[in-house]
Amino acid sequence: MSDPYVEAELESAWEVGPMFDVAYNLGNTKYQMKKYREAATYLSFALRHWPLMKAAAKLKPNAEKWLAESRAQVGAVGVTVSMAGAEVLVDGKVTGRAPLEGEVFVEPGEHRVEARLSGYETASQTVRVGKGGTVKVELAMTLAKSEANEATPVANAAEGASAPGAGAGASVEKKTPVAPEQQEQQPQERTWWPVIALGAASAVGLGVGVGMTVAGSNVLDDVHAQRQAIQDAGGQCARPQAAFVDRCAELNSAGERVDTLGHVAGAAYIASGVLAAAALTYALWPRDEAGAAGQPRVAAAAHPMGAGIVVLGAW
Fold first, then answer.
1. pLDDT-based confidence at 99, cuts 50/70/90?
2. Scanning 7, 55, 232, 244, which has its CA 20 to 30 A from the CA of 204?
3. Out of the domains of life, which is the source (predicted)?
4. Are 103 and 134 in contact (CB under 8 A)?
């Protein structure tokens, strides 16, 4: 699991759609590579989103153990920001938007935490955290000076207009006639059944992937046990003796089952991620005021190298 190729593949899957199973495998890979800060980040996400499925229950103790060991090597910063939606940065790197879902894991030492939001002054604080330690940071954001100055004349003008005799003797400003505004056409309500259908299909794909992963792990354990038993009996399967031919054939068959289950699990995870991405795209796609012309269309696509979901539309 410490192969850089595996790490790159899992990171690509994470970019497509952050899901618990990808986070679990990516966290395990980072843990094996001794990248404890990243391991803690992915494993904590996986545990926060752990599904209520019996098939995944046996994997959870591993995730908890790896997280505890990784957590002991790094520090954590709990960030609270007064304005929801503010962009949170640690050492200049964006970690998410307030409110953050969990702690931000950092290497031991000094770190700068910032919060940015349009129209507000940047709030920041520098903290020092040690191995296994946690520091709480509270950032209070205030309106930017330019925003505050623009608000003051408006308030003064309103007070002057309401004062007694304010209009006496004053020249009356001529106002240019304004054409009546055209009545805005109400956008059509979004249909949510595609999101429900795609989400349900994604969940099914995820369940199949987890089930195949667990089944493959069980068969792999059997393969190791059978190989060890053959070796303990003084045999080997490269050029098996007559007494070990049947046992080696069974061992090879079990190995093929492991490969098959792994391929099925990988395909299920990819399908689940694609379906989840399609559901999210449909849900967040902006609606066109002119009507259904701006709504995206979700369609299945197949080609000789595979299949997927295509979302068609225009911004």
1. very high
2. 7
3. Bacteria
4. yes
Report which of 50, 6, 65, 58 is spatially closest to residue 30, judged by C-alpha positions: 6
Separation CA 261–CA 285 (nearest Å): 36
User: Does the reported pTM lie above 0.70?
Assistant: no
| SS3 sequence of 236-302 | CCCCCCHHHHHHHHHHHHHHHHHHHHHHHHHHHHHHHHHHHHHHHHHHHCCCCCCCHHHCCEEEEEE
CA 99 to chain centre: 15
pLDDT tens string 190-234: 676 677 887 888 788 788 878 888 887 887 887 788 777 877 877
First CA to last CA distance, the chain: 41
Each domain of the chain, given as residue ranges in start order, spans: 4-139, 193-312
Which residue, 153, 114, 111, 107, is CA-closest to 132? Answer: 107
Q: How many helices (H) and strands (E) does the chain have?
A: 8, 9
Distance, in Å, from the CA atom of 238 to the CA atom of 82, rounded to the nearest integer, reads: 66
Whether pLDDT at 307 is above 80: no
Give dist(CA 238, CA 222) in Å, integer: 19
